[in-house]
Amino acid sequence: MEETTEDAGTGETEGPIVFVVDDNSAVCDAIRWLVEEVGLQAKTFTSAQEFLTFYRPGMRGCMVLDVRMPEMSGLDLQEKLIEAKCRIPVIFISGHGDIPVTVRAMKAGAFDFLQKPFSDQALLDDIFAAIQRDLRLCSQDKLRATAEHALSILTRRERHILALLREGKSSKTIAADLDIRAHLAQGLLHTADVSRTVIEQGNHTKVIPAPCS
Question: What does pTM read for this prediction?
């Protein structure tokens, strides 16, 4: 298994990884070669437990997951990821056209379900789209965290000014209403206004339902 640069303690990697989980090592190798040919990183695992042992919160990318595996099936692994609040998009692959299994996987948030044999291009299209979703979710999470931090460090007066700004009151009106001296008003209003911008950006992000922190 190839080395991947990882930040100590966070699990975050330099780039997205395609996690391939299939008990057939030949399938794992074939998908890894395909993924690496288009410049992406890939990690292969021949069991669900092997992946769970390796995975750390903060790792980004997507997963190509076989449905039928011994000991822990792909659906069982999907459930564990959901329980762990892991939102890495999961692309299921299967050699069996089992409609109930497909429906169960998709209802649980699978990104897609491909039946073997599938074309290389179909898989790559799914992988690129899934990675874009994951990176978008990651960006939204960071923006939301920034907004929460901006709110947490405001003083009581700054929070009050922020509330007035969000009501649509102008800076001049707020300064006059609160009888804030000019030199104090400028600093307080600037801090509150910047915080409002950050917080509103965080609140406007839309989380797309998906099967990682």
Answer: 0.67
